């Protein structure tokens, strides 16, 4: 049993990128679908889609590589973990590489990026950083 599904998702993406895979399969959930949508919107992955299966659907993430065949995602880091949750107010949202990366935050408005959270003036649980 996986105790931290978000960390598992990030690790699968990181490992698939190091192995130069075109895509990676991840057990699906609404939270992971939203994280994948943010990664796509920010240009870190090519695309994703959900494949309905029993007993659990799977999320297929198509990785994106640059002209030098390096993964566009240079780094992924889980911030809030099951053993130690990390929350932040709207004034203390962290910056990744001076704004070049993105922080994914779970807020009362849903799972959003750090830029959108600052714009809305809300904080929440800091899920992960991507650069």
For the structure shown, list the relevant keywords.
131 residues; alpha+beta; Ribosomal Protein S8, Chain: A, domain 1; Dna Ligase, domain 1; 2 domains; 5-stranded antiparallel β-sheet; 3-stranded antiparallel β-sheet; 8 strands; 25% helix; 31% strand; globular
Can you tell me about this structure?
The protein is of the alpha+beta class and 131 residues long. It has 2 domains: 5-63, 2-Layer Sandwich (Ribosomal Protein S8, Chain: A, domain 1), CATH 3.30.1370; 76-130, 2-Layer Sandwich (Dna Ligase, domain 1), CATH 3.30.1490. The chain has 3 helices and 8 strands. The protein has helices spanning 5-18, 30-41, 114-120; strands at residues 23-27, 45-51, 58-63, 76-78, 87-88, 102-107, 110-113, 124-130. A hairpin with a 6-residue loop joins strand 2 and strand 3. It is globular.
């Amino acid at each position: 049993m996986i105790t931290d599904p978000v960390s598992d998702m990030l690790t699968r993406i990181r490992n698939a990128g190091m192995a130069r895979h075109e895509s990676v399969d991840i057990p699906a959930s609404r939270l992971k679908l939203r994280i994948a949508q943010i990664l796509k919107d920010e240009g870190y992955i090519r695309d994703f889609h959900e494949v309905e299966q029993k007993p659990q659907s799977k999320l297929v993430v198509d990785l994106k590589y640059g002209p030098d065949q390096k993964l566009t995602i240079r780094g992924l880091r889980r911030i809030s973990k099951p053993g130690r949750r990390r929350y932040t107010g709207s004034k203390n949202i962290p910056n990744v590489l001076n704004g070049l990366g993105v922080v994914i935050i779970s807020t009362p408005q849903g799972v959003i990026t750090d830029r959108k959270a600052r714009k809305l003036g809300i904080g929440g649980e800091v899920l992960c950083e991507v650069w």
